[in-house]
Write a structure and sequence with these properties.
Blueprint: H1 21-41, H2 46-54, H3 73-86, H4 88-105, H5 113-126, E1 129-133, E2 151-155, E3 158-168, E4 174-183, E5 190-196, E6 202-205, E7 219-228, E8 233-237, H6 248-279, H7 293-321, H8 328-353, H9 355-358, H10 364-372, H11 381-397
Parallel strand pairs: 1-4, 2-4
Antiparallel strand pairs: 2-3, 3-7, 4-5, 5-8, 6-7
Length: 402
């Protein structure tokens, strides 16, 4: 069974938690220095997570009662944004860990205390990473409905878990796998099984060869009769109990952190673009490209889009931190706009730089590939717009709160 004890122990004294602007700026520079190579060979950035742990940033969202940083959403956003400006695949893995920690920090968290505390303590002590494994070959994303094919069978000693998961971001370094599955009971329950990564029967299929976020290690994982104690079925419910949709607070966290990630990619593209336009002086012009009014106008559009995204993310983070998150449908509109702004900002940069921007000698083409991944993350645009449209009609009919 897991080498990490699930028995409760008193939390350690709070360790270093340094999210100062100087530290975050240094991490951005350090991660950016290795980003190109990780992208080229698809290698996982293990060293980046050692650096994050050294500053107490892997456990930033862990409550202070368990030795973590107790970070607000606004603080977590700053951390993810700084990491994303350097190496966005690292930011994606960190975001997934933060979302697990946030869900376990909530007053209505359903996980048994021992399992919750083990995840927290390992993050503080060792920088242990966690992620939710939900997508399957047949099911696709569970956000669109359907029962998972991953099945847990009852045994005298607990459960035996078997299944196949796709897009397991961070699997080269994950310690904890929160696996979405169902029971084999006559009336199946659906929910989360906590699986320590080192258990026998877990096989990684190294299939991740993607256009963007190539260093995220988002491979497939196969579970072959993995033995779990009964208490590692940490949140099982009848399928109907999951139909209510995402919790507004948890959804706001997901939207803000993913938005910060892709906004960070766009800001890295902007920074490179401004340097390029200020230095590039074609002989026919006799001055830098930055002096051209049409170039200034295009850069002005980039500024407008990134300014709007900052305001949207700031507003949603403030609302969530104040305990008044909007509906999940409304939070989804933040993702729709922020990701559209990020993509358009990078596209404008490419239009201004031409072949230079598409050359692999420069980082802009990598930023373009990375920012396009924003369209894939749940919630996707069609789901966002459908939910927003339904909410508009419900409010017009007086069947939804204003």
């Amino acid at each position: 069974m897991s080498s990490v004890s699930l028995a409760y122990q008193a939390p350690p004294a709070r360790g270093l938690f340094d999210d100062s602007p100087a530290t975050l700026a240094a991490l951005t520079r350090r991660f950016a220095a290795g980003a190109e190579q990780h992208d080229r060979d698809g290698s996982f950035p293990f060293c980046n997570f050692l650096e994050l742990h050294r500053h107490g940033l892997v456990s930033a969202v862990v409550p202070t009662s368990h030795g973590g940083g107790g970070a607000s959403l606004a603080s977590a956003r700053r951390i993810v944004a700084a990491v994303a400006r350097g190496e966005p695949a690292t930011a994606l893995v960190l975001t997934m860990t933060y979302l697990i920690h946030r869900s376990l920090s909530r007053a209505d968290a359903r996980w048994p205390a021992a399992q919750r505390d083990a995840v927290f303590r390992s993050a503080v002590a060792d920088g242990a990473l966690a992620n939710a494994l939900r997508v399957e070959p047949a099911l696709g994303s569970p956000a669109r409905g359907g029962l998972p094919d991953t099945v847990a069978r009852r045994t005298p000693r607990g459960w035996r878990l078997s299944g196949h998961k796709l897009y397991t971001t961070g699997i080269p370094a994950l310690r904890w796998l929160a696996v979405w599955g169902r029971t084999d009971e006559p009336e199946p329950r659906v929910g989360v099984f906590l699986v320590p990564r080192e258990l026998p029967g877990i096989r990684v299929v190294e299939s991740w060869d993607h256009l963007g976020l190539r260093a995220s290690g988002s491979h497939e994982v196969v579970f072959e009769d993995v033995a779990l104690p009964p208490e590692n079925a940490v949140d099982l419910r009848p399928p109907a109990d999951w139909a209510a949709g995402p919790d507004p607070d948890q959804h706001a966290w997901m939207i803000v952190l993913l938005g910060a990630l892709y906004d960070g990619v766009a800001r890295s593209a902007r920074a490179w673009l401004l340097d390029f336009l200020s230095e590039r002086a074609p002989g026919s012009l006799g001055a830098p490209l930055a002096t051209l009014p049409r170039v200034q106008q295009a850069v002005g559009e980039i500024e407008a889009r990134l300014w709007a995204s900052d305001a949207l993310l700031d507003g949603l983070a403030r609302a969530a931190d104040a305990g008044t998150p909007p509906t999940a449908a409304e939070s989804g509109l933040v993702k729709f706009n922020v990701t559209a702004n990020a993509i358009r900002a990078v596209e404008l940069a490419l239009e201004l730089t031409g072949n230079h921007g598409l050359s692999r000698r420069n980082p802009l083409e990598r930023h373009h590939r990375d920012v396009l991944c924003s369209r894939i993350h749940t919630p996707q645009n069609d789901s966002i717009l459908l939910a927003a449209g339904r909410l508009a009609f419900e409010r017009t009919a007086g069947t939804a709160p204003p």
